[in-house]
Amino acid sequence: MLSVGAAQGQAIRAGTQPACGFSALLLRLGADAVGGLDPDPSNMNRRTYAVWWQEGERPRHAGKLELGPLHLLLAGNGAGRLAVPLDEIVSVDYRRSELLVVRRRGDPVRIGNLDGPGVLLELSDALARAA
């Protein structure tokens, strides 16, 4: 039965029963797991890759490609070192498991993968966004 009037107002103001429910004081203030500052795994944000490269018809080098904020740096065995400013890159083309980087000045640079599968596609996307 539903009652209307003064009796209902008193029922709403009635005290709670301590044996029912859970106390809000026992709830945790934070989550069980501590979240990291970076939402993506570290390998998704990497900026270095194991590659081989060849500038024009010069000898091929093996080493590391590092994608910096202003340049593409290739460093490897012997005297193999090449820095390509990102504003010098005219185009980036992925074909036949190689990346072809065409520059405003200088010979094109062919880059091949020595790392995991999909690295050159990832790198071509990163270069397209950066250049």
Walkthrough of the structure:
- This protein is of the alpha+beta class and 131 residues long.
- The chain has a domain at 42-130: Roll (PH-domain like).
- It has helices spanning 6-12, 119-130, and strands at 48-55, 61-67, 71-76, 81-85, 89-95, 98-103, 109-113.
- The longest helix has 12 residues, at 119-130.
What is the typical, i.e. mean, pLDDT?
78
By CATH, the superfamily of one domain comes out as Pleckstrin-homology domain (PH domain)/Phosphotyrosine-binding domain (PTB)
Specify the CATH class of one domain: Mainly Beta
Instruction: List the helices and strands in order.
Output: HEEEEEEEH
Q: What is the rounded Rg?
A: 31 Å
Instruction: Tell me the number of strands.
Output: 7
Strand content: 25-35%
Task: Predict the CATH topology of one domain.
Answer: PH-domain like
Molecular shape: elongated
Short note summarizing the structure:
With 131 residues, the protein is an alpha+beta fold. The protein contains 2 helices and 7 strands.
Write a concise keyword list for the protein shown above:
131 residues, alpha+beta, PH-domain like, seven-stranded antiparallel sheet, elongated
